[in-house]
Write a structure and sequence with these properties.
7-stranded mixed β-sheet; Rossmann fold; alpha/beta; 10 helices
């Protein structure tokens, strides 16, 4: 499938998700498509990881994340922060509570319906220093050396050209700036049948890279001091495995060293 076709699939699927509440969502990263098990506290954002955080808005939490990047982002009051794949604004509003009135939060999302939802949520919050724009992470229309911090939650795995995405992130960060992202990666070899399906792609699996390749792309983009703060295996539900693999292949998969993992990683742009 061509990159542009994959982008259209992502855009279409997340447009539909934007019309649903988090409870109804069964198609996003933490939906039934296999990226995460929403019954686990590690990835269920409602009531576990986010609800106690200042700035949290339930209407902005569509249950699409695979971590809490703000936890390790080192954001300070007054910082200019870019939230990539900002969705309905969940992480952006948590960031706003940290940067305060003197900071600036910019959310960028590929899906028009998500941006519209985020803007409605921002009106509820009444923030004048939070903005949401629609554009492509690979082609983000933002000036060089603009942001102190970039955050992103379970989004870059959906971007076809990850090298281009990280290169653009490097470009828009100020010297000495850094990113903190939660994302999905693969360890070992994921059965090809699991990776081919378009719905699995939108579910954060088929677009995920091997963790070593992922970290190599970050390094090749110019970033330094790369640190993986957190990694957690995400078991593929048996009913998903049975859709793609026969019993023998399922047994081999479970007995192997392969798997899908959520990681939270930071890296810095040199001064």
């Amino acid at each position: 499938m061509k990159p542009q076709d994959l982008k259209l699939i992502v855009q279409e699927k997340y447009s539909k998700i934007a019309q649903k509440s988090w409870i109804q969502n069964t198609s996003g990263c933490c939906g039934t498509s296999g990226c995460c098990d929403t019954s686990g506290a590690e990835f269920s954002m409602i009531g576990n990881e986010y609800s106690h955080m200042e700035g949290y808005l339930p209407d902005a939490d569509l249950n699409l994340g695979c971590g809490v990047p703000t936890q390790f982002a080192g954001i300070k009051e007054g910082d200019a922060v870019l939230d990539l794949g900002s969705g309905a604004g969940n992480d952006s509003f948590v960031v706003r509570a940290i940067v305060g009135e003197k900071g600036l939060v910019t959310g960028l999302d590929f899906t028009e319906a998500m941006v519209a939802k985020a803007r409605i949520n921002n009106q509820k919050m009444g923030y004048s220093n939070v903005q949401f724009i629609q554009d492509d992470i690979e082609e983000m229309p933002l000036s060089n050396n603009t942001f102190d911090v970039i955050v992103s939650n379970c989004v870059l795995n959906l971007v076809p050209n990850k090298a281009k995405a990280f290169t653009n992130m490097f470009r828009v960060l100020k010297p000495g700036g850094h990113f903190c992202i939660s994302d999905v990666v693969i360890k070992g070899t994921l059965p090809e049948k699991l990776r081919k399906d378009a719905d699995m792609y939108v579910g954060c699996v088929a677009g995920a890279l091997n963790i070593d390749e992922y970290l190599d792309i970050i390094s090749a983009s110019g970033f330094e001091n790369i640190t993986v703060h957190r990694q957690h295996e995400t078991p593929v539900p048996p009913k998903i495995l049975s859709n793609y693999l026969n019993p023998k292949e399922i047994k081999e998969y479970k007995n192997g060293i392969n798997g899908i993992f959520s990681i939270t990683v930071t890296a810095f742009k040199p001064v």
